[in-house]
Design a protein that fits this description.
Blueprint: H1 2-27, E1 37-43, H2 47-62, E2 66-72, H3 74-82, E3 88-94, H4 99-105, E4 110-126, E5 147-149, H5 156-168, E6 175-177, H6 181-194, E7 199-204, H7 208-211, E8 214-216, E9 228-234, H8 238-241, H9 243-250, H10 256-269, H11 275-285, H12 287-292
Parallel strand pairs: 1-2, 1-3, 5-6
Antiparallel strand pairs: 3-9, 4-7, 4-8, 4-9
């Protein structure tokens, strides 16, 4: 009897604990019907995704959410979205860059739409450079020191530049230098400060377009590919657990100029990786836009 009584007592305690957990979970639901906790997955090293995620973290915190940003590479992000380890990610490039992941995991994901339609690989030069198109670059290579400055050798941009751009436009006589994105930006900074011509591999969106007087060279042969959209993707149950936020993200748009300005203050002007105060100031300076995000 004492053993049975003890078992019954333990069962009662367990039941109370479970009911307490359920009550606690229910208490974590906001008045708008969303779960209070939200986890945003952010791709390592993708500045536009970091900027958008930090912006939404600040916006949602104002709305009463508890927001966590989790950094990871794309493969574990998409896998984690299907198991609800993450709620949403804001940096899916389609129809090309992340197509393989969406083909693999898309049946268990929710496409919330593109918030920017200008994601594109580019070759950029100083704004006052004497050329406007990639098909003029080879004939004027000496004006650029016979150099094209690239980024990481393992990047998709390097592959496209090597396999498509250089052979298409006859740029084989240029010295194509690959190292890292910071090294490319250092070359761009030095050339700008010295008033020299410079040609670099770049992409939109990037804060360099807000920080430097540069322009994209036209790509008449389409060697760099078409522009892509940057989509938000929710996890398997995101529309159920966060219906209001899902609606906000479906309506989310941010043009490139706004994005460039946010990236510039975060990654260039602030000199700090503590983004919260920088983003708060940017929000204060762009309040009219920010207020539209949750309407």
């Amino acid at each position: 009897m004492r053993t049975l009584t003890g078992a019954l007592a333990l069962g009662a305690v367990a039941a109370l604990a479970l009911s307490g957990c359920a009550a606690e979970a229910e208490a974590e639901t906001l008045e708008n019907g969303d779960e209070k906790n939200v986890t945003i997955a952010v791709f390592n090293g993708w500045d536009e995704g970091i900027a958008a995620s930090e912006l939404w973290k600040a916006v949602l915190t104002e709305q009463g959410y508890d927001v966590t940003l989790e950094y990871a590479d794309p493969a574990p992000v998409y896998s984690g979205l299907t198991t609800d380890d993450y709620d949403v990610t804001l940096d899916t490039w389609l129809p090309i860059t992340h197509a393989d992941y969406i083909e693999q995991y898309g049946d268990d994901l929710v496409d919330l739409g593109a918030w920017n339609e200008d994601a594109k690989l580019t070759i950029a030069v100083n704004e006052d450079a004497p050329v406007d198109s990639l098909d003029e670059l080879a004939a004027n290579a000496d004006l650029f020191g016979n150099r094209l400055i690239g980024i990481e050798p393992g990047s998709g941009l390097n592959r496209v530049t090597t396999d498509e751009v250089i052979p298409t436009y006859g740029l084989g006589d240029l010295e194509y230098l690959t190292s890292s994105t910071p090294a490319m930006l250092a070359e761009l900074t030095a050339a700008t400060e010295n008033g020299e011509n410079v040609a670099v591999t770049l992409w939109r969106p990037h804060w360099a377009y807000d920080a430097f007087p540069i322009k994209d060279l036209e790509d008449p042969e389409g060697a760099l590919g078409d522009a892509e959209g940057i989509h938000s993707f929710g996890g398997k149950n995101f529309a159920t657990t966060h219906p209001t936020l899902a609606g906000w993200l479906e309506g989310f748009t941010m043009d490139s100029e706004l994005l460039f300005s946010l990236e510039n203050v975060m990654f260039n002007e602030s000199g700090s990786d503590d983004y919260a105060p920088v983003v708060e100031q940017w929000i204060a300076d762009n309040r009219d836009y920010v207020d539209t995000l949750t309407k």
